[in-house]
Design brief:
The complex is a heterodimer. Chain A is an alpha+beta fold. Helices cover 27% and strands 16% of the residues of chain A. Chain A has helices at residues 20-26, 76-92, 107-114, 150-158, 194-197, 219-222, 225-240, and strands at 3-7, 10-14, 50-53, 56-59, 70-72, 131-132, 138-141, 164-167, 174-177, 204-206. In chain A, the strands form three sheets. A five-stranded mixed beta sheet of chain A has the order 2-1-5-3-4, with helices on one face. In chain A, 39% of the residues are buried. By secondary structure, chain B is of the alpha+beta class. In chain B, the strands form six sheets. Chain B has a four-stranded mixed beta sheet with strand order 8-7-6-11.
């Protein structure tokens, strides 16, 4: 038996066990998100997918869909909150889109366009972060890390390697690797790993392929992040149900 | 022998007793600069300097970045000729992937983009920045001596300038995806083919661009011949010239050997592999400018200064590879009666001849069957040091990088056209100051004469200040009576010394 809930007053069907986000995407409705990926367990760290359910804020990626609940998503207040969260993510890192090889295919950048980000709002933090060029095939540029733990989950759950982790707390936390030297070259990561492929920004990239896709043919030159998210979700559902 | 013109006006012996006049910002140029004039009580010019006051530092902050980022990052140096930086950096990093010779399609696509760049930049410079001085007079009313004045007085000419620039920008957009700061060149080739539709789109208007460029050569040539005495005299001096040429000594914008000639047109060096540029060119630093002063090593820093850019390229070329530009070159060179042309304002004429060349070359390249090819990439034995040199609109542009075993850039050296012309621009400023301003009460119109001389070189001041931490500085403390109390000097190695104790 299919139950339904109401997303911005529209009736959305859902299956038992689906989150609000999954049910919404399944029905063709986009809720902005960065750290949630259809292949991975939800993480609820970016907070962009926050919705109001029966008057209270929840992460829609972790909140189970429930019968007849009332979910507000596309409201001016929530869009303003999402924008503020994204602005915080930007100022906490060093994101220089003009020369980044991920530009045009970067989820963070695409989300900024989606939410109409036009200024920093908060003081730029300019954190000092170490780059790791040591691996022969994979670059790690911590300046671009948003600590979404996509690589942590993908390496553990999809690659079966457990290469990445987050070290430290709060604003000082940073991406760490599972090697006594602390260097990527001493881990068993490879350029084919899902941990590298799924990184939403230019933090983890395959070496020597940057800029090979011309402007106009990059991922978000062709599709908006909302359209891409719906496609990705549908592809994952078709593959794994 | 080319002693630097009016060198005695570079540094006054008693600056404390002089009146200071500052032209800041210099207008209708790229970037930020200023001119300072020191004059005595009788309004005689005692010191004239062009200062580059902004600071960029790309040489420093590219360190640690992966080499494939270089062509994309360094083009942000400039919004007018990013393509030149993009391609010079790309040529340098081709070395890292062992791409000694690109595929014909890749090289021709890069050349096509470079010609688009030359066309749009030269059109911008002549029509938008320089033409108000040339059409209305150097001392004309400032209210009309600008691009709006040109649009009102010469609307057809202004429209041609705008459309020429737009066409050049369209060539860049088609190839690089954006008019400004697009991406075409990647290590070992290019990332995109040219479609038949885009080729037809560009071919549609190219004949008109060639005709308008030809007209522009006629306009500047007539301005020059109508005002020959003043134009030949204005801010002029003899100098050496540096540029790339082909192996036959012909005009070249994208690739070739370095040629330097003296003021009589005799070779100082020729067919030099630009990877060895450091054996031939050194840079001097002076305490009062962020921009360095390059010179030819064999001649030393007093006599080895030189000029680059359109005038140098035309002076150094035996032949230009497109018929209309070659015809224009011959007419231009006839003025020198067998010797190089030295007039500062002749830069404008040479620039328009180059614009004509670029338009013709675009037409030729678009009709070349290789331009639609799909073989875009090549590679070979990896290297860790690379030099790329290109003739940017303003002159010879050198990019030099070293990388470590992890593909990260560890050293970068950029010598841009404006830096090569630093000594010459200062000489032009001093020459104009001595000839036109000396002994006179300064007016806006008179001061504009200084800017006219600087504009002839089309300086890109923002591109020219990249070093970080190596700039010698003098800090002086003067008391109210004009006595020097203390002087702190920072050397090129960063050491500090207190010279007066």
């Amino acid at each position: 038996m299919t139950h339904t809930f109401f997303l911005d007053d529209q009736e959305i069907p859902f299956r038992e066990g689906q989150s609000v986000l999954q049910a919404a995407l399944s029905a063709g409705h986009y809720i902005p998100h960065l750290c949630w990926r259809p292949q991975l367990e939800p993480h609820s760290s970016c907070r962009l997918c926050t919705v109001i359910i029966n008057g209270r804020p929840f992460s829609s990626c972790t909140q189970p869909a429930m019968k007849d609940q009332k979910v507000d998503c596309d409201t001016p207040e929530l869009q303003a909150l999402r924008k503020a969260v994204l602005q915080m993510i930007f100022v906490e890192g060093n994101h220089y889109c003009p020369s980044c090889e991920e530009s045009g295919s970067c989820r963070l950048q695409a989300m900024a366009y989606h939410l109409g980000l036009q200024d920093n709002r908060f003081p730029q933090q300019f954190p000092i972060r170490e780059r790791d060029n040591s691996h022969p095939d994979v670059n790690m540029d911590r300046d671009r890390c948003i600590r979404c733990e996509t690589c942590v989950r993908a390496s553990r759950d999809l690659d079966g390697k457990n290469v990445f982790g987050i070290h430290g707390r709060g604003i000082k936390s940073k991406l760490a690797v599972n090697a006594p030297s602390g260097l990527l070259k001493d881990t068993d990561v490879s350029a084919e790993d899902q941990a590298v492929a799924l990184c939403p920004t230019g933090c983890l990239t395959v070496k020597r392929v940057g800029f090979k896709v011309p402007i106009g043919q990059r991922i978000y030159d062709k599709e908006s992040i909302s359209a891409m998210a719906l496609k990705e979700f549908q592809a994952e559902e078709a593959a794994h149900g | 022998m080319n002693p630097i013109a009016n060198l005695e006006l570079e540094t006054a012996s008693h600056p404390e007793a002089l009146t200071r006049t500052v032209i800041e910002p210099i207008t209708r140029v790229e970037g930020h600069g200023k001119v300072t004039l020191l004059m005595d009580e009788q309004n005689h010019v005692k010191q004239a300097r062009l200062h580059i006051v902004e600071f960029r530092g790309f040489e420093k902050f590219i360190q640690g970045r992966p080499y494939w980022e270089a062509p994309v990052m360094v083009q942000r140096l400039c919004g007018i000729c990013p393509v030149s930086h993009h391609l010079a950096a790309a040529k340098a990093i081709d070395t890292f992937v062992g791409a000694r010779q690109l595929t014909p399609t890749a090289e021709k696509l890069r050349r096509l983009m470079h010609c688009g760049q030359t066309l749009q930049s030269h059109a911008l410079h002549f029509f938008h920045l320089a033409s108000p001085d040339l059409l209305f007079g150097f001392g004309a009313d400032v209210a009309t001596r600008n691009i709006i004045g040109v649009i009102q007085a010469h609307p057809a000419l202004a429209v041609q300038g705008v459309k020429l620039r737009k066409y050049g920008q369209e060539v860049i957009r088609v190839l690089a995806g954006k008019r400004v700061h697009g991406i075409l060149a990647i290590p070992g080739g290019v990332n995109k083919t040219l479609s038949r539709e885009d080729r037809e789109y560009l071919l549609k208007d190219i004949d008109q661009m060639v005709t308008w460029s030809q007209d522009a050569v006629g306009i500047v040539g007539k301005l020059f011949t109508d005002n020959q005495t003043e134009f030949e005299r204005f801010g002029s001096f003899r100098s050496n010239f540096l540029s790339l040429t082909t192996s036959k000594g012909d005009f070249e914008l994208y690739d070739g050997g370095l040629r330097a000639r003296d003021d009589k047109g005799q070779d100082i060096f020729d067919h030099v592999n630009y990877a060895h540029y450091l054996r031939y060119l050194h840079e001097e630093v002076k305490s009062w400018s962020y921009m360095k002063f390059p010179f030819i090593v064999s001649l030393g820093n007093d006599e080895g200064w030189y000029r680059v850019g359109p005038l140098a390229r035309i002076n150094n070329a035996r032949f230009m590879g497109t018929p209309l530009a070659e015809e224009a070159r011959k007419a231009f060179m006839a003025m020198g009666k067998g010797e190089p042309i030295h007039a500062t304002l002749a830069y404008h004429w040479a620039r328009m001849i180059e614009m004509l060349y670029a338009a013709e070359a675009i037409r030729d390249l678009l009709q070349d069957p290789d331009i639609l090819g799909t073989d875009l990439m090549t590679q070979g034995e990896r290297a860790t040091e690379g030099v790329g040199v290109i003739e940017a609109p303003r002159g010879t542009l050198i990019h030099h990088y070293k990388i470590d075993e992890h593909d990260a850039i560890v050293k970068a050296n950029l010598i841009v056209a404006t830096t090569h012309n630093n000594t010459a621009m200062n000489a032009a400023v001093r020459e104009v100051a001595a000839h036109y301003l000396d002994g006179k009460v300064l007016t806006e119109g008179l001061l504009n004469h200084i800017e006219v001389a600087i504009r002839a070189y089309d300086p890109c001041l923002s591109c020219a200040t990249q070093a970080l931490g190596r700039m010698p500085l003098h800090v002086e403390l003067w008391d109210a009576e004009g006595q020097l109390v203390d002087r702190l000097v920072k050397g090129a190695d960063g050491t500090l010394s207190d010279e007066l104790g």
